[in-house]
């Protein structure tokens, strides 16, 4: 995507992995090749493998630049993170920070990191490996996390599970910023305070995880919704009942997804999902009893 401008606010995309093919069963619990075939014409080769039925997803962050703040929304997978349970994420070595630098920002320039939820592919660059220790990548930032979200993952961690929480991300990408006092807990349906509230508001979108939230950015009459994993792929616009394999509560996840689509459909709201490949940004339009996603702002 090119820079999305909302008056004096800009939204940039910082890519970690731009186009990763994933099998249907890895992404959704109830997708079939027939569903993909029925939507292939409008999805196109950029979203569906041309000679198969794998779907393309992206891993990226969004940087919201206001006149006063640099806000980083979700921090992808991260480098050198052991994620053996997900080979495509295991021990990455991506030029993510170089891509951040390409838009004129260094890690020290980030004022706020907003985590829409705490899955491994949304918190990885919260930390980086320095001299064998995981340290905050963005040392001057406050890391904003939903209170309900942190309570859930903290509870899982304290239960000493056999498998590491969030594929290990809670321990190497969340705990280090907590221990350094950088985390600010929020209740998504309550208004933010200070300069951040001038352009940004949060919305409870629980279901994918207990504390998932949408980030709304408004300026000069324009409106963008950064919706994390409420939508994993544009095919869910046509088939809102497709459930992510990572959904914590299927019914609430569906309600959050359908509600988002209904509120955004046929409006001027630009939708930016965490896994839509380039060109990424677009709008929801009505189509029969469901919806379509039209790329381009």
The total of beta strands comes to 15
Biggest sheet, strands in spatial order?
1-2-3-4-5-8-9
Number of helices, counting only DSSP H or I runs of 4 residues or more: 8
Task: Report, as a whole number of angstroms, the end-to-end distance.
Answer: 9 Å
How do the strands and helices of this protein lay out in sequence?
Layout: E1 4-6, E2 9-22, H1 24-27, H2 33-43, E3 55-65, E4 70-73, H3 96-102, E5 112-114, H4 120-123, E6 127-130, E7 133-136, E8 142-146, H5 147-158, H6 169-179, E9 183-186, E10 200-204, E11 213-219, E12 222-226, H7 235-238, H8 250-264, E13 269-272, E14 282-287, E15 290-295
Parallel strand pairs: 4-5, 5-8, 8-9, 12-13
Antiparallel strand pairs: 1-2, 2-3, 3-4, 6-7, 10-11, 11-12, 14-15
């Amino acid at each position: 995507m090119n820079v999305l401008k909302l008056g004096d606010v800009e939204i940039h995309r910082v890519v970690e992995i731009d186009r990763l093919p994933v099998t249907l069963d890895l992404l959704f619990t109830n997708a079939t090749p027939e569903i993909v075939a029925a939507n292939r014409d409008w999805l196109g080769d950029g979203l569906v493998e041309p000679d198969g039925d794998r779907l393309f997803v992206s891993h990226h962050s969004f940087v919201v630049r206001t006149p006063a703040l640099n806000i980083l929304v979700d921090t992808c997978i991260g480098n050198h993170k052991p994620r053996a349970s997900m080979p495509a994420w295991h021990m990455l070595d991506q030029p993510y920070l170089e891509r951040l630098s390409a838009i004129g920002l260094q890690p020290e320039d980030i004022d706020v990191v907003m985590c829409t939820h705490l899955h491994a592919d949304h918190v990885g660059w919260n930390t980086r490996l320095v001299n064998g220790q995981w340290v905050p990548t963005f040392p001057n930032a406050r890391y904003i996390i939903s209170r309900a979200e942190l309570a859930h993952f903290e509870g899982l961690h304290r239960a000493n599970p056999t498998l590491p929480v969030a594929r290990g991300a809670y321990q190497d990408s969340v705990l280090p910023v907590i221990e350094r006092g950088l985390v600010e807990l929020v209740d998504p349906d309550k208004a933010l305070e200070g300069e951040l509230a001038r352009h940004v508001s949060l919305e409870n979108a629980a279901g994918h995880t207990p504390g998932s939230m949408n980030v709304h950015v408004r300026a000069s009459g324009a409106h963008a919704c950064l919706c994390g994993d409420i939508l994993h792929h544009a095919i869910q616009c046509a088939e809102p009942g497709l459930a992510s394999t990572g959904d914590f509560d299927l019914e609430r996840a569906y309600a959050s997804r359908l509600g988002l689509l209904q509120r955004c459909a046929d409006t001027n709201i630009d939708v930016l999902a965490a896994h839509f490949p380039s060109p990424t940004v677009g709008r929801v339009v009505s189509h029969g009893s469901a919806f379509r996603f039209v790329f381009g702002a």
